[in-house]
Amino acid sequence: MTQRIALVTGSARGMGRAMAEALAASGHSVIGLDRLDQDPGPMIRVIKADLASPEAIAALIEEIGRVDVLVNNAAVLVEKPIEEHSIEEFDLTIAVNLRAPFLLSRGFGAGMRQRGWGRIINIASIAARTGGMSQVAAYGASKAGLVALTKNFARNYGPDGVTVNAICPAAILTPMAESQERVTPGAMAATAALIPLRRIAQPGEVASVVAFLASDGASFVTGTTIDVNGGLFTY
């Protein structure tokens, strides 16, 4: 069997880096994509690109070609009161968090459908469930849109052997969470106190779910959203 190729966006650090490492450990040839410089580590290739640009995305799809597992992880978070959100910040959030996954899924998904096998994994957020428990209106809206996008792609791509799922993480120790802590000191400790497991998670605890969804063991799992939040939010 040809080694499967996985593309992870936002792979330079945090959850994205952990996902890239987990997929490499499970036998995938991993391509990492980020707007930041990054060490390849176990990845076969790293690419620096701006996912806010549709033109850059089109060029990436043409250049990379085959992708068997797509992990849409890259995201922008602007934490400001609603009144202070600029139009430019709102548009950037939607462009990276929602439009880019749509374009990447459609672009690489075409090849998956032709080959009769593929995995698309969208990294949403607990904010998709709650609307955001802090000042993240645009971010929450973009992640809720990503969950809806997941369901629609799953319905359309399923007949061709492509599964599409989402993960909603929360309370994960990432650079994004650390930036929120700087904005609101004590936020992580306060959040941990609300979690039934009484702790903040490590990025690898989300990456292991990604590795499962990318595997043959998840062949009958599609259109679903998996919460990885330690019980912080249930419904």
Can you put this structure into words, describing what you see?
- With 235 residues, the chain is of the alpha/beta class.
- The protein has one domain: Rossmann fold (3-Layer(aba) Sandwich), CATH 3.40.50.
- Helices cover 44% and strands 16% of the residues.
- Strand 4 (69-72), helix 3 and strand 5 form a beta-alpha-beta unit.
Low-pLDDT residue intervals, each spanning 5 or more residues:
none
Rg, nearest Å: 17 Å
Helix/sheet category: alpha/beta
Compute the number of strand runs.
7
CATH topology: Rossmann fold
Report the end-to-end length measured between terminal Cα atoms: 41 Å
Tell me briefly what this model is.
44% of the residues lie in helices and 16% in strands.
Topology:
Layout: E1 5-9, H1 14-25, E2 29-34, E3 45-48, H2 54-64, E4 69-72, H3 87-115, E5 118-123, H4 127-130, H5 137-157, E6 162-169, H6 175-183, H7 187-194, H8 204-213, E7 225-228
Parallel strand pairs: 1-2, 1-4, 2-3, 4-5, 5-6, 6-7
Helix pairs in contact: 1-8, 2-3, 3-5
Features:
single chain, 235 residues, alpha/beta, Rossmann fold, seven-stranded parallel β-sheet, 8 helices, 7 strands
